[in-house]
Design goal:
The structure holds two protein chains of two kinds.
Chain A (H helix, E strand, L loop, with lengths): L1 H5 L3 E4 L2 E9 L2 E8 L14 H5 L3 E4 L7 E4 L1 E2 L11 E2 L5 H5 L4 H5 L12 E7 L1 E4 L4 E2 L16 E3 H8 L19 E8 L14 H16 L2 E6 L9 H10 L3 E4 L2 E6 L5 E7 L4 E7 L1 E6 L1 E2 L4 H8 L26 E3 L9 H21 L1 E4 L4 E3 L9 H5 L5 E3 L5 E3 L9 H5 L5 E3 L4 H12 L4
Parallel strand pairs in A: 9-20, 11-18, 12-13, 12-18, 13-14
Antiparallel strand pairs in A: 2-3, 3-8, 4-5, 6-7, 10-19, 15-16, 16-17, 22-25, 23-24
Helix pairs in contact in A: 5-6, 6-7
Chain B lengths: L5 E6 L11 H9 L4 E7 L5 H14 L3 E6 L2 H14 L7 E5 L1 H5 L5 H19 L8 E4 L3 E5 L3 H12 L3 E5 L24
Parallel strand pairs in B: 1-2, 1-3, 3-4, 6-7
Helix pairs in contact in B: 1-5, 2-3
Classes of the chains: A alpha/beta, B alpha/beta.
Chain lengths: ~450, ~200
């Protein structure tokens, strides 16, 4: 992380989003919205005084997954890169109520800028790596887990914050009442491998659940009940890790943890079926950790359309070939890295990202790209300049030339043929897909066989 | 336009096609089509000997158009286009009929599959006669990359590209890079720290 922040060849644009991509492999024009941090990056020294003095506390749904609080002016975490805070304008007293300005008063370098505006940055690139990751599925969608009805029912990510030394309890595993738990349940496949949520396996939850079981045993000595359907310990040294956790005394129950009930005294009753014993199991515990599924981000469709990406039926971005072309996409020059293509654990993500980087470097080393000649061309003599094709073109490849007639930029044209079908004058031909070729093909297809 | 001299190659794809399509019957039909100079079958047309067979026919029989009926063009169109190019023929004088994904893998009835294969081959032959030579264009590549997302994947990709000497624009939606990884405590299976 630090290396990426310091690398002389990396320009970091944080708190920013890509708004538009045009062009083609080797020659993309990218518009990026750099959102206003309300802090001047060149003046801020990252001293943290503003954050310390800010009077507005907000529950941190992002970094702390709802387990802790942050201020309205904040760095998400202490090692943040860049080490520059942002003002959360929805919760800042100055932006919401027109008073306070404490951060501006205490900032020793005058870096606070309440009037800062979003900025549009335009860059030209030859290749794009999409590494947008995943979102956590919300377990409230399956009410049988009672998520949200007790503060002691956590998602895996929330438990990460609980057990993390930088988290709200400084790494102590405690219930919401501040007590050490005596019994803890870990439930696998919550929202994964479930026809009522996601059919796919989220792939890394079995392993992090084992790690959570280990951390609970290690830090609290509590009894841990681990409800699993199948233990997917498929990676290098994973099965051995599973063996180790079994030796640490975690009690494994084979069968889906089907339901969590919040009892009158606040205890949590986990109900499941032990498939090995063939009978129902009930365990009363103090803390439940749900290994919740991961899923594509809510705005995955918008991102797909910006970068010209396809998606598989489960919603993830589609690779060009499921085995042979795992990082390429249907758009030349746009590559995928990590879990935006499907659930991946850390080692697989690192390998996938390395493969994506190699594709980019390969393209750059070649120095030039070959572009298919199967594009559309306009017969200038037939074109009447009505402009219908310009409207119909999904790649903005057509413009009006000095004569007022349609002109196709072959570099942008994908040869899709939409303009050919649209042109009322029959002035456009798709090379390699001429009317003559297509009609001959259809005639031969339909004629009786002799 | 010079007189089309078409070679047609029906692939057995091991048993992928041959078990469901009567390949010799398709070859026989193709041999009788207008402008077809030669029609053959091969166990694996995409193999080195399969491509060699096409290249030899181009040279020896003076073929100027080629049709291969086999798998999806997404798989091997570039393979056969390169074979044409290797024998001195423009790669756009090529047409492919998909008789695997569109026929043998989806139709179980052999006579029906064979009829559809024949029709697809016949239409590819009709189409290829009108093909014109085309030349791909070459364009310079802008030597800078955009990486979208500053989690493990984005950081790893950005560092590898940057270390190779190229400019990288790393865009992250959140105020800091780090992504999910920065939230985690120890990671499996080594229990080492994550950041």
């Amino acid at each position: 992380m630090m290396d990426a922040g310091r690398h002389p060849n990396i320009t970091l644009l944080s708190y920013s989003e890509v708004e538009n991509v045009s062009g083609y492999v080797g020659n993309f024009d990218v518009q990026i919205r750099k959102r206003a941090r309300s802090v001047k990056e060149d003046l801020c020294t990252g001293c943290g005084t503003c954050q310390e003095k800010c009077p507005s506390k907000v529950i941190d749904m992002a970094y702390e997954a709802g387990m802790g609080k942050r201020k309205a002016i904040y760095r998400p975490f202490s090692q943040a890169i860049p080490n520059i805070p942002v003002i959360d304008r929805d919760n800042c007293l100055w932006f919401t109520k027109g008073r306070c300005r404490v951060c501006a008063k205490v900032c020793p370098t005058g870096a606070i800028d309440y009037d800062q505006q979003d900025e549009i940055v335009t860059v030209k690139v030859g290749a794009i790596v999409v590494a947008t990751g995943f979102a956590m599925w919300d377990p409230k969608q399956l009410p049988q887990y009672s998520y949200g009805e007790s503060p002691n029912i956590l998602t895996g990510l929330q438990f990460e914050r609980l057990t993390n030394a930088s988290g709200p309890t400084l790494g102590e595993i405690l219930t919401a009442e501040g007590k050490k738990p005596e019994r803890v349940a870990v439930i696998h496949c919550v929202g994964s491998r479930d026809e009522n949520a996601h059919l796919y396996c989220s792939r890394f939850c079995c392993m992090y659940s084992l790690k959570h079981a280990h951390q609970v045993r290690d830090k609290t000595g509590a009894e841990v009940y681990d409800f699993y359907m199948d233990m997917r310990a498929f990676g290098k040294a994973y099965e051995e890790f599973y063996e180790r956790i079994q030796r640490e005394g975690v009690l494994f129950v084979r069968g889906r943890g089907a339901e969590v009930e919040v009892l009158a005294d606040g205890k949590l009753r986990v109900k499941g079926e032990d498939a090995n014993l063939g009978r129902p199991v009930f365990v009363d515990v103090d803390l439940v950790i749900l290994a919740t599924a991961i899923e594509p981000h809510a705005d995955v469709g918008k991102v797909a359309s910006i970068f010209g990406l396809g998606r598989t039926p489960d919603g993830w971005f589609a690779e060009a070939h499921p085995k042979l072309r795992p990082v390429e996409t249907s758009t030349a020059g746009v590559f995928l890295a990590g879990s935006c293509q499907g659930p991946r654990d850390v080692p697989d993500t690192v390998a996938h990202a390395g493969a994506a980087a190699l594709e980019v470097v390969r393209l750059f080393n070649q120095g030039e790209v070959t572009i298919s000649p199967t594009v559309a061309v306009v017969d200038q003599a037939k074109c009447v300049g009505c402009g219908e094709c310009i409207i119909s073109c999904p790649y903005t490849a057509i413009h009006r030339n000095a004569d007022g007639k349609a002109q196709i930029n072959a570099a942008l044209c994908h040869g899709c043929g939409t303009c050919v079908a649209t042109c009322p004058s029959g002035a456009i031909t798709a090379l390699h897909f001429t009317d003559q070729e297509i009609v001959a093909q259809i005639d031969a297809l339909m004629a009786a066989l002799v | 336009m010079e007189e089309p001299r078409i070679g047609v190659y029906i692939c057995e794809c091991g048993v992928n096609i041959a078990a469901t399509v009567d390949v010799p019957a398709v070859v026989e039909m193709a041999a009788g089509l207008p402008n077809v100079v030669i029609a053959r079958q091969h166990k694996y047309t995409c193999s080195e000997p399969g491509q060699q067979m096409i290249q030899d026919d181009i040279r020896e029989l003076g073929l100027n158009r080629v049709v291969v009926a086999s798998c999806t063009p997404r798989m091997h169109e570039p393979t056969f286009q390169r074979a044409l190019q290797g024998a001195g023929l423009n790669p756009y004088y090529f047409e492919m009929a998909n008789i695997r994904e569109h026929v043998s893998w989806v139709i179980h009835d052999k006579p029906a599959a064979t009829e559809k294969a024949k029709r697809l081959v016949r239409s590819a032959v009709a189409r290829v006669a009108f093909h014109e030579p085309l030349e791909p264009r070459r364009e310079a590549v802008e030597q800078a990359a955009l990486v979208v997302g500053g989690g493990i994947a984005g950081i790893q990709a950005a560092l590898s590209i940057a270390d190779s000497g190229y400019r990288v624009y790393l865009v992250e939606r959140e105020p800091s890079i780090g992504g999910r990884m920065a939230q985690l405590d120890k990671t499996f299976p080594t229990l080492d720290c994550s950041t």
